[in-house]
Each structure stands twice: as structure tokens, then as C-alpha cells.
Amino acid sequence: MRKKVELNIRFMGNKVLCAKSPTNCKGCVHKSNCEELELFYYPYNKKEIEECFKNDERIR
Predict the structure, then answer these.
(1) Would you state the pLDDT for residue 56?
(2) Of 1, 3, 21, 22, whose CB is crowded by the most CB atoms within 10 A?
(3) What is the mean pLDDT of residues 16-42?
(4) pLDDT tens across 31-59, in order?
(5) Distance of alpha carbon 28 from alpha carbon 12, whole angstroms
(6) What whole-number distance in Å separates Cα of residue 52 and Cα of residue 46?
(7) Residue 15: per-residue pLDDT
(8) Bridge pairing between strands 35-41 and 3-12
(9) What residues have CB less than 8 Å from 49, skipping those under 6 apart?
(10) Distance between CA atoms of residues 47 and 60, nearest Å
């Protein structure tokens, strides 16, 4: 099951200066300069992550 993450991200050129959840940005004076992103990801347990790294090392 995929999960959703909402982030406010502030960039300067190609660098990220700040990346926080919108609930943590309430008092920020730079909030108007942020981009609001909604990201989706599939969470994995530790065993699945270790298996992924094992398979990656075999390919190299």
C-alpha cells in the first residue's frame, strides 16, 4: 500500500535549503518561496530492503 507525503521545499539554485512538512512551516517567513510537493512511496520492511541491496551487489 502506498503512502503519501506532503512537503514544502525551498530551493536556491539546484540546492535544497529547507524541506519540511506543511504543519512545521506555520511560522516560517519564507513559506511563500516554497514549492509544495505531494510524494507517494511504497514502504518496505527491513528484510525487503536488505534483499534489494543483495540483488544490487550481485549485478555489479
Answers:
(1) 62
(2) 22
(3) 91
(4) 888 999 999 999 989 898 888 878 765 55
(5) 16
(6) 10
(7) 94
(8) antiparallel
(9) none
(10) 21
